[in-house]
Amino acid sequence: MNPDASTIAAGAPIEVDLSPIAEGQDIKVFWRGKPIYISHRTKKQIDEARSVNVASLPDPQTDEARVKSGHEQWLVVIGICTHLGCIPIAHEGSYDGFFCPCHGSVYDTSGRIRQGPAPTNLAVPPYQFVSDTKIQIG
């Protein structure tokens, strides 16, 4: 009794198995027609994201506010640049986060805008952990 394709396209929640995603790797899935990046961050990436002076950011937000407590290694963001809606490239740019080659917006490993014309951080979709290795988006 799974929902039909039109229901899924309209925004039914999706479940994603995280177990095949290696540390330092990310995947892209689609929810509501939007690309969702799921990154399995390394300790180094987490430490770098948390060492940033939040007041220096164009859109101040802590790394802790962008991930789920107890699952800090997982970053889940909507992969749409907040400047003009382009799709950024993961693991690119000066901060090993996301880079939008269209106009040069650079995001860090927490999906926060660091350089370029984008006005805000990459959005975090509604999601929850249904187990230690599975999330539900939506």
From TrEMBL:
It catalyses: a quinol + 2 Fe(III)-[cytochrome c](out) = a quinone + 2 Fe(II)-[cytochrome c](out) + 2 H(+)(out). InterPro entries: Rieske_2Fe-2S, Rieske_2Fe-2S_sf, Rieske_Fe-S_prot, Rieske_Fe-S_prot_C, Ubiquinol_cyt_c_Rdtase_Fe-S-su. Keywords: 2Fe-2S, Disulfide bond, Electron transport, Iron, Iron-sulfur, Membrane, Metal-binding, Transmembrane, Transmembrane helix, Transport. Residues 49-136 form the Rieske domain. One of its GO terms (cellular component) is plasma membrane. The keyword Kinase does not apply. One of its GO terms (molecular function) is metal ion binding. SUPFAM superfamilies: ISP domain. Its EC number is 7.1.1.8. Its cofactor is [2Fe-2S] cluster. It is found in: Cell membrane. It is a single-pass membrane protein. It comes from the Bacteria. Belongs to the Rieske iron-sulfur protein family. The Rieske protein is a high potential 2Fe-2S protein. NCBIfam families: Rieske_proteo. Component of the ubiquinol-cytochrome c reductase complex (complex III or cytochrome b-c1 complex), which is a respiratory chain that generates an electrochemical potential coupled to ATP synthesis. The main subunits of complex b-c1 are: cytochrome b, cytochrome c1 and the Rieske protein. This is Ubiquinol-cytochrome c reductase iron-sulfur subunit.
